[in-house]
Amino acid sequence: MQTIEAPEEIFVEARDALPQMEAGLLWAMRAWAVGLSRGIEVSAEIHAFFRDIGAPRAALCLDDVMQRLNEGAARMLEVNCVCHPRVSRDEMDLLLAMALHQEGRGHEAQPVLRRLLEPAHAGRMGEALARLVAQLNRAGLRMPRRAAALEAQVRQGNILALAGKAPIQCLH
């Protein structure tokens, strides 16, 4: 299978271009990661975000997702600072896995999760994502679907991490 190399803007998209629900989830994931790496207590802010969008129990589910990601990562993952203007491939994979679970297509999220996690951890991450999206669903919060062509390329692993990726050190 030939690997497709694409221009940066096709994969690493601007954070501000994300739909509101995805942008909020990205913020929460990034805040959690910054809190862990810097030893900063951020749970109150994350809980406030989920409370404000009507899914207060989702905060605990996100914490579980991020703990599993931290414990089972197959490599150093790129999760940027909350203020970073670009979305990394790893962040896009997490958002895609969440969207697939929300659509009831969790089995299709497994190859995406295996790009991020050791194989033994991918299944447990799927369970954690299912609990998170169940809370979002209860609150009537939906993640919009991506373009089918891009989603297929991402799932198949045909789009590589691209030049110009955001630096991991963007934490302040």
What this model shows, in words?
It is a single chain. By secondary structure, this protein is mainly alpha-helical. The chain has one domain (11-156). 58% of the residues lie in helices and 0% in strands. The chain is built from eight helices and no strands. The protein has helices at 8-11, 20-38, 43-52, 58-72, 89-102, 106-114, 119-138, 148-156. Helix 4 (58-72) packs antiparallel against helix 7, helix 5 packs across helix 7 and helix 6 (106-114) crosses helix 7 (119-138). It is globular and about 35 Å long. It starts with 7 loop residues before the first helix and ends in a 16-residue tail after the last helix.
* Average pLDDT rating: 82
Q: Estimate percent helicity.
A: 55-70%
Order of helices and strands: HHHHHHHH
Tell me the strand percentage band.
under 5%
